[in-house]
Amino acid sequence: MQKYSEILNNIELVLENTKSISDALNNGNFELEDLEEISNLYEEREKNILQLKSLLESDIGKEFVAEKQDEWNEKINLIVNLDSVNLELLRKKTKDTGEKLKQLNKQKSVLIYSK
Asked: Which domain covers residue 97, as residue numbers?
């Protein structure tokens, strides 16, 4: 198991990044600071995924996937499921923000015409 520790640690990092993104999406108000935090989390996650990819392309990585396929599938499925939820939250928040922007534009138009 020791020879797979770097791979397992990297999988855990990606999982933690994904959970942190979920927390930020659930707790944020979609303000600029929240968006910057989410963007930074996605950038960090991307680096960890690229590192994991390079590890998995090595001989030890290929051996890990072959020997620990159940554990690999479990972790990856968890990450994919969490990411699906995150993408749905992003879609919903983006749509809500778009609706708020439309309402603000309508109010602005009414104010301009009323002057």
From this structure: 2-114
Q: Residue 34 — very low, low, confident or very high, per pLDDT cuts 50/70/90? A: confident
Cβ neighbour number for residue 71 with a 10 Å cutoff? 14
Q: Is 21 exposed, middle or buried (0-12, 13-18, 19+ CB in 10 A)?
A: buried
The pTM of this model reads 0.80
- The position carrying tokens 């809500």 is 96
Domains in the chain, number:
1
C-alpha span between 102 and 6 (Å, rounded): 48
Res. 26: pLDDT tops 70 = yes
Judge contact between 41 and 21, C-beta under 8 A.
Answer: yes
- Averaged over 67-85, what is the pLDDT? 94
Tokens of 29: 């108000």
